[in-house]
Amino acid sequence: MKIAFYDTKPYDRVWFDPLSEEYAYTIKYFEHRLNPDTVVLSRGCDVVCVFVSDDVSADVIAALCENGIRLIALRCAGYNNVDLKAAEGRLPVVRVPSYSPTAVAEHAAALLLSVNRKTHRAYTRTRDNNFNINGLMGMDLRDKVTGVIGTGKIGMLFAQIAKGFGMRVIANDVSPAEDSGLEYVSPDELFALSDVISLHCPLTKETHHLINAHRVGQMKAGAILINTSRGALVDTDALLEGLKSKKIGGAGLDVYEEEEAYFFEDKSNEIIADDDLARLLSFPNVLITSHQAFFTREAMQAIAMTTMENIFSFSKGDPLVNQVKSTRQG
Ligand code: NAD
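# nicotinamide-adenine-dinucleotide complex -> structure
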């Protein structure tokens, strides 16, 4: 099999190169993202391997078919960047449904601890020989309330971590996990009671702008919001207003509504044209990471292994256990 691998970063090759040898596949690595201009690079390959910011829209899919591509292999869980309707009946789409929920849950906890105790600010201060602690006061997490929205694989692990901190965990999910021991409450109760709200549900039509002006209004004054799920769960305007009015006490964000133009790239020599992102970055109580919650050795290894197994199954004509069939976004 010949694989056209888009949006390649150096760390991808570390995990995919040894496996390509094992499977005797050829991987053509491209630093470009897949889009209508770069789709031509896939000519002569059998498979395209893509990530979260590649453009797999209807036009691109038509061009992939013309180029002889037979499989779209996502090396991520989410597939909101793929036009599944356009792919239906033409190109099967496979993904990596789960790689390391632990990685994401632990990153959510890291964001919470940093935003609460302002370790990101302490780090820059002490490096500048500024040992003043004014403005760095946080709160004890013990006995505070964490509201977890979405108690699937990641949310459940985050709930366990929060319990380890001695927090009371309340949760909301459209399909509550039976016998989980979690205290499920309505969304209204969750927003009113939580000192910390952590988002772990997928981005769907129903969850788009789950955090909006109404929900911010319902929050406890000073609540901390953590989002490691998908940017569009949060209405950025509502978040900015909540931060400006101090209703929201802090935010730890690994994802952002308009992240495609910035995340994963070095933009340090450029002017940030996205005023909302620039404003968010200006708040001392906001910590943004660049969609790195998944980024552990264990997760990268699992991503590479499952992607190659998906391609192997396809080459053998075996059932594609990780084929994406519905239009639900994850
Ligand atoms: P999962 O499918 O195991 O769990 C999602 C849970 O959300 C399910 O229990 C589901 O019932 C619930 N849910 C769906 N709609 C809901 C709604 N309207 N209200 C409340 N709950 C709802 O998924 P997971 O593996 O735990 O992943 C969660 C999300 O994390 C993914 O959808 C993805 O967007 C995100 N993610 C982010 C990264 C990262 O690097 N930042 C990596 C992997 C996954």
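# post-check
The pocket of nicotinamide-adenine-dinucleotide is lined by residues 77-78, 98, 101, 104, 149-155, 172-175, 200-204, 206-207, 228-230, 254-255, 291, 293-294, 330 (CB under 6 Å).
The longest strand covers residues 248-253.
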